[in-house]
Amino acid sequence: MVPRELIGTAEVPGGEPLRLFRRGRDFMIVLDRNELMSSRMSGSEEALADLTIDRLGGRQAPHLLIGGYGMGFTLRAALRRLGPQAKLTVAELVPGIIDWARGPMAELADGCLDDPRVDVVIDDVGAVIGRGRGTYDAILLDVDNGPDGLTRAANDGLYSMRGLAAAKAALRPGGVLAVWSAGSDAAFTRRLKDAGFRVDEVAVKARSNGKGPRHVIWFAVGR
């Protein structure tokens, strides 16, 4: 087996550092002993973009907020689907993630960060949401492992009633809040409904070939 090579370490504000490994042509971002993401598993991250855009009903110039960048699978899938008038804001808390995308993972990134439709903001996505009243047609959250966060305790605020109210206020009428998770969470589903959203919970496969573990995406639209 090809050995795993440590490529870099990135500091997480208020959390444990992330490490980037490479094995052959594959990359893995790891927290302690937990593999948070891998270039071998892109299916559910791409579905986060595709299924959200399906629910936007053909808006001609949608503005999407994506938090965070990860390995860019969600961003690249959205760019493939959206026209030249679309705008995509990527909120990424960890500067090192963007440095990796422009450095050792530049081939994987495939220039997506330099697309004129893309604006990268180095900030907590919760803060970006709080500044964006009535701004976004969709908010796509792929932060930590979902509502049961791993990397940073402050991320829990995104999934609290206060965080959900902020997301609802940041959406335009009929906008979509889409939340990726490694697994289901009945308490979070109830919280979305209590926050005034109509909720559709969808199970998707981790790999683009339809294989691998099942992940979950919640699609929430304000009532």
Question: In brief, what are we looking at here?
Answer:
By secondary structure, the protein is an alpha/beta fold. It is built from 7 helices and 11 strands. A 7-stranded mixed sheet has the order 7-6-5-8-9-11-10, with helices on both faces.
How many helices? The count is: 7
Instruction: Note the main sheet.
Output: 7 strands, mixed
Major sheet: order of its strands?
Answer: 7-6-5-8-9-11-10
Structural class designation: alpha/beta
The proportion of strand residues reads 25-35%
Count of DSSP strands: 11
- Residue windows where pLDDT falls under 50 for at least 5 positions: none
Mean pLDDT: 92
Give the N-terminus to C-terminus distance in angstroms.
52 Å
Task: Please estimate the helix content.
Answer: 25-40%
Q: Please trace the helix and strand order, writing H or E for each element.
A: EEEEHEHEHHEHEHEHEE
Rough outline: globular
- Radius of gyration over all CA atoms, rounded: 16 Å
Descriptive overview:
This protein is an alpha/beta fold and 223 residues long. Helix content is 26%, strand content 32%. The protein has seven helices and eleven strands. The strands form two sheets. It has a seven-stranded mixed sheet, sandwiched between helices. α2 links the parallel β5 and β6. The longest helix is centred in the N-terminal third of the chain and has 12 residues. The protein is globular and about 50 Å long. The relative contact order is 0.16.
